[in-house]
Specification:
- By secondary structure, this protein is of the alpha/beta class.
- The protein has one domain: YqgF/RNase H-like domain (Nucleotidyltransferase, domain 5).
- The protein is built from four helices and six strands, in the order ββββαβαβαα.
- Strands 1, 2, 3, 4, 5 and 6 form a six-stranded mixed beta sheet that branches.
- α2 links the parallel β5 and β6.
- The longest helix has 28 residues.
Length: 161
């Protein structure tokens, strides 16, 4: 019988469970690469971190747990890829599944954030920074995670005003 590391029974996507202070971690889940970003403690800025290459669930979970611990993150934000009309896509199901797994495995709240057009915005930002196509390809997922995180911080700020 396998024991659970953690029991985190709160609903996914309920931003009211996100603590009012502390760093937040975001991931932009993909089937091959996982973009990662972190906020500062005051939640003023976000910055991309190293992309995680997806191999299996166990290694992904260990990588994310280590990043959560390294930055003392207070919540995990997962990008939810919706269609342009807001409907669910096949990748939405994948993101929801991964969010559910993280919620069962981590001691921090896990929330979903709409990530429509973040990849396009991330590419645009990287090109404006003078990155080559190859450089942009390697970092676009984490740049998108930083945008996802900034969007959630905006939601949290609007909610508290």
């Amino acid at each position: 019988m396998q024991e659970k590391d953690t029991v985190n029974s709160g609903p996914i996507a309920d931003i009211s469970r996100v603590p009012a202070a502390g760093r937040l971690l975001a991931i932009d889940p993909g089937t091959k690469r996982i973009g990662v970003a972190v906020s500062d403690e005051l939640r003023v800025t976000t910055r991309p971190l190293e992309v995680i290459t997806r191999t299996n669930w166990k290694s992904l979970l260990l990588s994310v747990k280590n990043i959560v611990a390294d930055f003392d993150a207070k919540a995990l934000v997962i990008g939810l890829p919706l269609e342009s009309d807001g409907s669910e896509s096949e990748m939405s199901g994948y993101a929801r599944d991964i969010a559910r797994k993280f919620a069962l495995s981590l001691d921090i709240p896990v929330v979903l954030q709409d990530e429509r057009v973040t990849s396009y915005e991330a590419k645009s930002r990287l090109w404006q920074q003078g990155k080559t196509v190859n450089e942009a390809r390697r970092t676009v997922d984490s740049e998108a995670a930083a945008i996802i995180l900034a969007d959630l911080i905006d939601r949290l700020t609007a909610r508290s005003e």
